[in-house]
Amino acid sequence: MPRYTAPIRDLKFIFHDLLALHSYADVPGFEEATPDLIDAIIEEAGKFTGDVLAPLNKVGDEQGCRRLPDGSVVTPDGFRDAYQQFVDNGWPLLNKPVEAGGQGLPYVLGMATSEMTSSANMAFGMYPGLTSGAYEALMNGGSDAQKALYGPKMASGQWAGTMNLTEPQCGTDLGLIKTKAVPQPDGSYKITGQKIWISGGEQDLTENIIHLVLARIDGAPEGIKGISLFVVPKFILSEDGQLGPRNSLSCGGLEEKMGIHGNATCVMNYDGATGWLVGEANKGMRTMFVMMNEARLGVGMQGLAQAEVAYQNAVDFARDRLQSRALTGPAAPDKPADPIIVHPDVRRMLMDQKAFIEGARAFAYWTALCGDLQHKAPDEKDRARAADYMALMTPVIKAFLTDRGYKMTNEALQVHGGSGFTREWGMEQFVRDCRITLIYEGTNGIQALDLVGRKLAANGGRAVFTFFAELDDFIGLHQDDPDLQIFVEALKTTKVQLETGTSWLMRNGMTDFNNAAAASFDYLQLFGLTAMTYMWALMAKVSLEKKGLDPFYDDKLVTGRYFVDRIAPEAAMHLAKLQTGAAPIMALAEDRF
Amino acid sequence: MPRYTAPIRDLKFIFHDLLALHSYADVPGFEEATPDLIDAIIEEAGKFTGDVLAPLNKVGDEQGCRRLPDGSVVTPDGFRDAYQQFVDNGWPLLNKPVEAGGQGLPYVLGMATSEMTSSANMAFGMYPGLTSGAYEALMNGGSDAQKALYGPKMASGQWAGTMNLTEPQCGTDLGLIKTKAVPQPDGSYKITGQKIWISGGEQDLTENIIHLVLARIDGAPEGIKGISLFVVPKFILSEDGQLGPRNSLSCGGLEEKMGIHGNATCVMNYDGATGWLVGEANKGMRTMFVMMNEARLGVGMQGLAQAEVAYQNAVDFARDRLQSRALTGPAAPDKPADPIIVHPDVRRMLMDQKAFIEGARAFAYWTALCGDLQHKAPDEKDRARAADYMALMTPVIKAFLTDRGYKMTNEALQVHGGSGFTREWGMEQFVRDCRITLIYEGTNGIQALDLVGRKLAANGGRAVFTFFAELDDFIGLHQDDPDLQIFVEALKTTKVQLETGTSWLMRNGMTDFNNAAAASFDYLQLFGLTAMTYMWALMAKVSLEKKGLDPFYDDKLVTGRYFVDRIAPEAAMHLAKLQTGAAPIMALAEDRF
Question: Whole-prediction pTM value?
Answer without folding.
Answer: 0.98
